[in-house]
Specification:
single chain; alpha/beta; Urease, subunit C, domain 1; Diaminopimelate Epimerase, Chain A, domain 1; 8-stranded mixed β-sheet; 21 strands; about 25% strand
Length: about 525
């Protein structure tokens, strides 16, 4: 049995003392895949490998409670559209990529900034000028908005007189012609259904890239938050090929139009993963999209949008149907993982989980409502009352261009000042977990922690909703024990004897630095079950 000791570091155990402080020590000993000793006992025990912690900080490895690894990995292989300053710059980049890849029938790109066009409406003609003869399909950073060219519209039979789907919006011009902007999958899925699946080699490259990236950030567990049937085999193949440096749980997507027909498939996928996998991948979760996003006016609101007074957004589910669906998967032993952005979307999620708890037998549920952007005051305490985990993407908790250009004008000042109420919901007793939603934003937990702690864009910038800030200890807990609780893991999330040896080693104590520099602290090492997966 191999033993490793990390010493000369602040070892943050995650365990709260009666004083409220978190217990720390100065050394940790690992034997094979488990933590076996701390502090003086660890230092006095022989080890095969001794690592000088260089005065750094050791903690349980981070988890990511909501992320899209395959999307993030594939993005690197498509036309580059991220971090550009105008629609025409994006179109030019796509055109250059298309000309250098003449063999590619469908030109794809992921991650363009959907705030760059007025009202978030992007025109097919801008892409036609660069790529007129092949379909172009670009997805925005919100992953709910898609921009296509005229050839893609033609192949999908989108023209004048097209009927609007009930679960999406085909944005039309004044003359009734599709503009090229498609919102929510009811509008863009018919286009995506025409595209060929990426080949297995591309998918394996995507998973490998994502896994290496997560390891470099100190991450050892992830929730893939959107998996369709073909994705199950992708993850099993990646595990069999030894590409994974994390534990992965798959959230199987529930289609509001056909969820009843999916129930057998959900159970078959779970059984397949258990039978064919090696224990690194699980499929215990079902993903629901209660609504869209506020930036595209598809997030479901209780009261109308300010800039569209006749619209309350776009719920993706009928509320009563969602109750039945959540209760059905709950009865089968699956966890509900519910995307909810608007306050009506959040209420739908809370109502559905509460209903399931009434009609089903009790069990150790770990329900999750994800993003939790806008919560009606009447619903804030319900997270703790029902036992729903509030998952936040903390990097979003700042007043950036998404807010100034799209979100705030649509919500108005009162609702704008009620977003991402992390501190409030935590103080009401709910469990908080953190995630990244990468590739929407950075996968690096330390960058998200910086924003959760400061609610600032940078030095000298105003603090946005200061009462919603959380302490560094609380933010670390949300990314460690909070995600471990979400995952149903009793052996992770804390540094203690008997726990799995999932560890992260960073260069500085984030509690002792300028909070606006937390995101820049280097990660020096990551361990997954005692195996070192990253060396900084």
């Amino acid at each position: 049995m191999a033993t490793t000791r990390i010493e000369n570091a602040t070892v943050w155990t995650g365990h709260r003392l009666p004083s409220g402080d978190v217990l720390t020590t100065d050394a940790v000993l690992v034997r094979d895949d488990r933590i076996v000793a701390l502090g003086g006992t660890a230092r006095s025990t022989d080890a095969d490998e001794v690592i000088d912690g260089q005065g750094g900080f050791v903690l349980a490895a981070f988890g990511d409670g909501h992320v899209h690894p395959v999307f993030g990995g594939l993005e690197q292989q498509f036309a580059p559209v991220r971090d550009m300053s105008s629609p025409l710059e994006i179109a030019a980049s796509v055109g250059a990529w298309a000309r250098s890849h003449p063999e590619t029938e469908w030109v794809r790109g992921e991650g363009f900034d959907h705030t760059l066009a007025p009202e978030g409406i992007f025109l097919a003609s801008w892409l036609d000028a660069e790529v007129p003869d092949r379909p172009v399909v670009l997805r925005a950073t919100d992953y709910h908005t898609v921009w296509v060219n005229s050839e893609a519209l033609r192949r999908a039979n989108y023209g004048v007189g097209i009927a609007q789907p009930h679960d999406g919006e085909i944005v039309l011009s004044d003359d009734g012609m599709p503009t090229g902007t498609l919102r929510e999958w009811g509008a863009w899925r018919p286009v995506y259904n025409l595209m060929p699946e990426p080949p297995l080699t591309m998918l394996m490259d995507a998973v490998s890239f994502a896994s290496r990236s997560f390891a470099s950030a100190g991450i050892s567990w992830i929730q893939d938050a959107w998996v369709e049937p073909s994705g199950v085999g992708v993850w099993l193949t990646a595990e069999q090929r030894g590409l994974l440096d994390q534990q992965v749980d798959l959230a199987l997507w529930a289609d509001p139009n056909s969820w009843r027909e999916q129930l057998d498939g959900f159970q078959a996928s779970r059984a397949r993963v258990a039978a064919e996998g090696g224990g690194q991948v699980s499929a215990r979760t079902i993903k629901f999209f209660a609504d869209g996003v506020i930036e595209s006016a598809t997030g479901a609101l209780i009261e109308p949008y300010c800039d569209c007074p006749h619209s309350r957004g776009l719920p993706n589910w009928d509320p009563e149907e969602m109750k039945l669906a959540v209760a059905a998967i709950d009865a089968l032993g699956f966890t509900a993982h519910i995307h909810a952005i608007g306050d009506f979307g959040v209420r739908m999620g809370l109502d559905a989980t509460e209903y399931a708890s009434r009609v089903n037998a009790p069990w150790d549920r770990r329900w999750v409502i994800v993003h939790t952007q806008l919560v009606d005051p009447a619903d804030l305490a319900r997270f703790a009352e029902i036992g729903v985990i509030a998952n936040f993407e903390p990097y979003w908790s700042k007043f950036d261009s998404w807010q100034t250009e799209l979100t705030a004008p649509r919500l108005g000042p009162d609702r704008t000042a009620r977003q991402y109420q992390t501190g409030t919901i935590a103080n009401l007793g709910a469990t908080i977990s953190f995630g990244s939603d990468w590739p929407v934003t950075t996968y690096a937990p330390l960058e998200g922690i910086q924003v959760a702690v400061t609610r600032q864009m940078g030095p000298g910038e105003p603090v946005w909703l200061p009462d919603e800030r959380v302490s560094v200890d609380a933010a670390l807990s949300a990314y460690t024990s909070g995600v471990a609780y979400q995952a149903g893991r009793s052996d992770a999330g804390y540094v203690r004897p008997g726990a799995v040896a999932d560890l992260a080693w960073i260069a500085q104590d984030p509690r002792a630095v300028d909070p606006l520099t937390i995101g820049a602290i280097p990660v020096l090492g990551t361990w997954y079950r005692g195996r070192r997966t990253f060396t900084g």
